[in-house]
Design brief:
CATH architecture of the largest domain: Alpha-Beta Horseshoe
CATH class of the largest domain: Alpha Beta
Oligomer: single chain
Strand order of the largest sheet: 2-1-3-4-5-6
Helix content: 25-40%
Number of helices: 12
């Protein structure tokens, strides 16, 4: 009998990369992968614990699966399974809870997807600190850009962050193993790989750094772009920036979280830099890397953020070379040091400040896109959107659309930018 399996991912790009691998392990066991929301015999939910809202969403997803498929075997893994196993055990219908140490092998623990009288918990607080391998190849058949996990865990312990407790301490993927997966992804037709992890700038395997991994990946035929995902500012070495300036494959793009534009708040967050340090870094990047795309993360409403501190964040975003910001409203996360801090910010104030930064981010992104009107850019096309426009990305992370009847999936095409819409640049195929 061929069982059906579906998957749902909450949270970050790293979770997406891991779900792609977990999906493949079930496929190799003979399961037929179906879209989430369809009738299924088994559902694996890869969870997030960045906020309590993420955990609440996980509980809602479990209930929605069981409403659609009451007899489905429900396996919950990921960060919430690591720190919230006791709460998950109370949700009727959960069959298996798999913590961080065992989640990549969840398929091995399920012989047949039959409902259990009580949930089984596979969990340990002692998450390995050793460098690791990933046995399967990620199942990225539905996407153009494949996520490639190269690192896990973090030693930085920012006061707002639960990740060191949900994913453990930092460790890296063995270089030969990540090259093996990248080679197979290239054979499957993926032209861009996105390097993912918790703190990827700390990649280190037998003396080899993130730059060494990038150089090795560049040697793989078929991989035409290598994109670095979110990376901590204090972990970016000068030689990586220099290499980006001349590399034919490493995308001229950095997403470097700043979190706040105020030194007092940065210190309270246990960030490892000052505003001056951060600005000096981004300005060096702009000077060295032509047409570089620069994004950041900003947290609004961290305890102690008054009007002056928020204004410093707003001014940093407005006056710096940053092209956009992902804006997050601070949410008290039990288990972190920030959860015990005084001087909370009122939710309505957080909402108002978030809106200000989001509007500014949209303006900055559009200004960035507008610089390319009349220019020709190279686009890796992905899919057609709801409006019928085929869209893709430039190397420096500009979303570009083209109106065409052609199927441009996974194709590189030159596009002359003609105008800027609200959320993309529009152009003509050449």
């Amino acid at each position: 009998m061929s069982y059906r399996a579906s998957f749902y991912t909450l949270g970050c790009r790293l979770n997406q990369a891991e779900t792609a691998v977990i999906s493949r392990t079930f496929q190799e066991k003979g399961y037929r992968i179906v879209e989430f929301g369809e009738d299924t015999d088994l559902c694996v939910i890869n969870t997030c614990s960045v906020t309590e809202h993420s955990e609440a969403k996980c509980r809602n997803i479990i209930r929605s699966v069981l409403r659609k498929s009451p007899q489905a075997f429900v396996a919950v893994t990921g960060c919430y399974a690591q720190i919230g196993a006791e709460n998950l055990k109370k949700i009727e219908g959960v069959d298996l809870i798999v913590g961080t140490e065992y989640k990549m092998k969840v398929a091995q623990y399920i012989q047949t997807p039959s409902k259990l009288p009580a949930p089984v918990v596979l969990h340990t607080r002692r998450i390995s600190r050793d460098n690791f391998t990933v046995e399967a190849i990620g199942n990225h058949s539905e996407v153009t850009r494949a996520n490639l996990k190269i690192q896990d865990g973090c030693d930085f312990f920012c006061t707002f962050c639960i990740i060191p407790f949900t994913r453990g301490r930092e460790r890296s993927r063995k270089l030969g193993d990540l090259l093996r997966e990248a080679e197979e992804l290239a054979r499957q037709g993926h032209k861009e790989v996105v390097l993912t992890g918790v703190n990827i700038g700390r990649y280190f395997d037998e003396g080899r750094t993130l730059l060494d991994a990038v150089k090795a990946l560049e040697g793989i035929d078929g991989i035409e772009r290598i994109r670095i995902t979110s990376i901590e500012p204090t972990t970016i070495q000068e030689d990586l920036v220099d290499y980006m300036a001349s590399s034919p494959k490493l995308c001229p793009y950095f997403h470097v979280p700043v979190q706040s534009g105020d030194d007092k708040i940065l210190k309270a967050m246990n960030r490892r830099y000052t505003v001056k340090d951060y600005l000096q870094f981004v300005e060096r990047v702009v000077q060295k890397v032509p047409d570089v795309g620069l994004g950041t993360d900003m947290i609004v409403g961290f305890p102690g953020e008054g009007d002056a501190e928020f204004e410093n964040s707003r001014r940093l975003l407005e006056e710096s070379p940053l092209n956009y910001a992902h804006v997050f409203s601070y949410s008290r996360r039990p288990g972190t040091r920030a959860a015990k801090m005084d001087s909370p910010v009122h939710p309505e104030t957080i909402k108002e400040r978030s809106k200000i930064l989001q509007q500014l981010s949209r303006k900055k992104r559009q200004n960035f896109y507008s610089r390319y009107v009349g220019r020709t850019v190279r686009v890796l096309f992905e899919t057609r959107n709801e409006e019928g426009i085929f869209t893709g990305l430039t190397a420096n992370y500009i979303r570009v659309g083209a109106i065409t009847n052609l199927d441009l999936s996974r194709q590189f095409r030159d596009v002359r930018i003609t105008e800027v819409l609200e959320d993309m640049a529009l152009g003509t195929l050449l």
